């Protein structure tokens, strides 16, 4: 069975219930970390935000929650940015898109993969948590979408947005600031913890491995990697995450090949040797194994 505490925790991350955010918005402080001359990482409550500033206007990658909008905009201004002209969403989940609506109403152009618009435009059902998520407001939805990849030339950089098929969800994108050597992974990478495979959104452990491969192929020893959650990372951090996923997948698949059921695979504790360093985050070892099993059996 899914841990009931996880249900409550995940419910707190959805854009539809910002009042239940994990932290009181009044107490949240936005932390800003400079990564390059005009590229920053913002951390508050929700998914990590990427920021580019310059003559093209401010560009945000993900938006956390609407109640934090004023604090996020203040952090943008403190970093030297002006009005937010572009928002890039790495996927549809509310802890990454919850702040879209006020920015969209203020004139920001919202960009995401085709499936992000599809999911934000219709009610979603997350079977793992027995939760219905209503459509996002029109102003919160992407107005520019793409099927596989797109490139923007903004603030003196080449910003490449690349869709990664069926990792965290079916609408994931990584965002690369080519000149600044910064990559935002969205939730295809969560630093030092087991990732959440959203099976209801067609996520898969194989997609997570492919996403890590895609970022590693674009990164070097100096690349700064913004994870969906957690502290700033580098190529070595992502390599460890990739290797963990490959090991876990192999152990879970071996048990599936023996004909074991989901509960039997969980009881066998295939990730036991990995649980101490990786199993202390949002996903417990049991939840990670269950969602991995479900994605491999699909």
């Amino acid at each position: 069975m899914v841990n009931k505490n996880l249900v409550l925790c995940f419910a707190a991350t959805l854009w539809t219930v910002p009042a239940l955010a994990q932290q009181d918005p009044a107490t949240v402080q936005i932390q800003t970390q400079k990564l390059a001359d005009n590229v920053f990482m913002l951390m508050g409550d929700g998914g990590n935000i990427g920021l580019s500033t310059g003559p093209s206007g401010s560009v945000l990658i993900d938006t956390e929650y609407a109640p934090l909008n004023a604090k996020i905009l203040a952090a943008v201004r403190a970093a030297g940015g002006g009005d937010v002209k572009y928002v890039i969403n790495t996927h549809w989940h509310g802890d990454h898109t919850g702040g879209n609506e006020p920015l969209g109403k203020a004139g920001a152009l919202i960009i995401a993969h085709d499936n992000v618009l599809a999911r934000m435009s219709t009610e979603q059902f997350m079977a793992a948590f027995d939760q219905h998520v209503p459509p996002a407001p029109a102003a919160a939805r992407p107005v520019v979408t793409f099927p596989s990849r797109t490139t923007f030339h903004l603030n003196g950089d080449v910003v490449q947005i690349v869709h990664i098929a069926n990792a965290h969800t079916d609408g994931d994108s990584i965002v690369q600031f080519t000149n600044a050597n910064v990559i935002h992974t969205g939730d295809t990478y969560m630093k030092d913890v087991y990732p959440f495979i959203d099976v209801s959104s067609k996520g898969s452990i194989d997609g997570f491995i492919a996403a890590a491969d895609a970022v590693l192929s674009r990164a070097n020893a100096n690349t700064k990697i913004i994870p969906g959650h957690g502290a700033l990372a580098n190529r070595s951090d992502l390599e460890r995450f990739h290797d963990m996923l490959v090991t876990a997948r192999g152990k879970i698949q071996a048990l599936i090949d023996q004909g074991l059921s989901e509960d039997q695979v969980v009881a066998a504790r295939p990730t036991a040797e990995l649980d101490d360093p990786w199993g202390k985050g949002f996903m417990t070892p049991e939840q990670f194994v269950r969602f991995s099993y479900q994605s491999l059996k699909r």
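Residues 4-297 form a domain with the Metallo-beta-lactamase; Chain A fold (CATH 3.60.15.10). The longest helix spans residues 235-257.
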